[in-house]
Specification:
alpha/beta, seven-stranded mixed β-sheet, four-stranded mixed β-sheet, 16 strands, 17% strand
């Protein structure tokens, strides 16, 4: 067995398909958001980031940094163990209480990431339900798919946001059989909303439990930043809400919020929760500050500015005839429709215009829908937006990428 060869071949296959990923070597700088230093073979340059999931710039909010410093200085660098083995600090308890209150649920539970939260919670909830069948939207995130898989339960995939299809699949099952519907409130590659109310109606009609991933919504939607379910007045109707502290909250970690018994069962049975060291105190302290800030007036102001920036960018790109894909949210996808040109466009933006937007290619999105996914933040001002629009127009001309129909 030529072990080395196996791995070289695996890489070669990905390269041949044009799917080999190269990470931009970036250095974010406190006080300069959304700008960062880009380390290249020929030196270091300042670039503007237009594709960060630190959607509101909270990763460098002075109060968040102060909370991280304070937690670090008073609690130390690491949590010291799993939650069971002395890794529960008072900050973990406070943050879980805050998140439960935010989502108006009885309890919440922290995980080391949003990915781990989905994998651990979905698989545990489904496994505890006797003979459970899971209904999963076809565009669900990889972490939800991992949860569905590791539950080893029967699964039914419904077409994206297709309520008729979901209903047909639900109706095929005996009413008494345990059912879990897993879906998202904001699908992050297309920027569309999940039909939360209609899914909850179906869940009620067919006696199913609901699990909603609000990763791309928490901090950004709703009066207190609890997500789309809060904005639409539906939080009470969703059984389990899952979120991350790593995107709009600008830190790290994931969580679920729900009924006490559900959360306690996941705490007691989920391997991905039990057997890993808990989040560092600095991270938890920072996240707690961020959640509290975004629940208040400053959060409402940032959310308003965030939506305004996204709407303005969509309008300006459309006015230039650039193919902005229809998006109802803060996410602004621009269609390229070809993997090679998508990568070229991204490279050209970075090399010639100091603008960083990573290419989104298969398998993240279907072939033929390769795109640039732009995420404007409240901190991308008009002048910065002018530079982006001008650069995109030039790149579209140079690479002869199709314009909007
Ligand atoms: C990013 C993402 C996750 C994972 O969250 P992390 O905190 O980054 O691990 C889960 N669900 C969706 C939809 C995501 O986009």
């Amino acid at each position: 067995m030529d072990y080395r060869r196996v791995f070289e071949d695996a890489i070669a296959r990905i390269k041949a398909e044009g799917r080999y990923r190269i990470f931009a070597d970036l250095q974010r700088q406190v006080g300069r958001f959304p700008r960062a230093l880009h380390h290249r073979p020929d030196g270091v340059r300042e670039v503007t980031i237009w594709c960060s999931n630190d959607y509101l710039g909270m990763g460098q909010h002075p109060a968040v940094l102060a909370a991280a410093r304070e937690a670090l200085e008073s609690y130390g660098a690491g949590a010291g163990g799993t939650r069971n083995i002395s890794g529960t600090t008072h900050l973990h308890v406070l943050l879980e209480q805050e998140l439960a209150r935010l989502h108006r649920k009885e309890a919440a539970l922290l995980f080391t990431s949003g990915y781990v939260a989905n994998e651990a919670a979905i698989s545990t909830i489904a496994r505890l339900l006797p003979d459970c069948v899971i209904f999963s939207d076809e565009l669900n995130h990889a972490s939800m798919i991992a949860g569905v898989r590791s539950s080893r339960c029967e699964k039914k995939i419904f077409r994206h946001n297709d309520l008729e299809h979901l209903e047909r699949l639900l109706a095929e099952q005996p009413r008494e059989r345990a059912k879990l519907i897993v879906f998202e409130s904001v699908y992050s590659m297309d920027g569309d909303f999940g039909p939360i109310e209609a899914v909850c109606d179906l869940a009620e009609k067919y006696n199913a439990m609901t699990y909603l991933d609000e990763v791309h919504a928490v901090g950004m939607y709703g009066e207190h930043g609890a997500g789309v379910a809060e904005q639409w007045g539906l939080m009470e109707r969703v059984d389990v809400i899952q979120g991350t502290l790593a995107k709009a909250y600008g830190c790290q970690g994931g969580y679920i919020a729900g009924a006490e018994a559900v959360v306690d069962a996941v705490r007691s049975y989920a391997s991905g929760f039990i057997f890993t060291t808990s989040l560092t105190p600095a991270t938890v302290g920072a996240a707690l500050a961020s959640v509290r800030l975004l629940a208040g007036p400053e959060g409402r102001e940032l959310r308003a500015r965030h939506q305004e920036r996204a709407a303005t960018l969509k309008r300006r790109l459309a006015a230039e005839g650039l193919p902005v894909m229809p998006s109802e949210t803060h996410i602004v996808p621009v269609l390229v429709g070809d993997p090679v040109r998508c990568k070229q466009a991204s490279d050209m933006l970075l090399d010639e215009f100091n603008i960083y937007i990573q290419p989104i290619n298969f398998p993240t999105v279907p072939r033929g829908t390769e795109r640039l996914r732009i995420t404007p933040t409240p901190w991308h001002d008009d002048a910065t937006m002018d530079q982006l629009v001008e650069a995109l127009v030039r790149v579209w001309q140079r690479l002869e990428i199709p314009r909007a129909a």
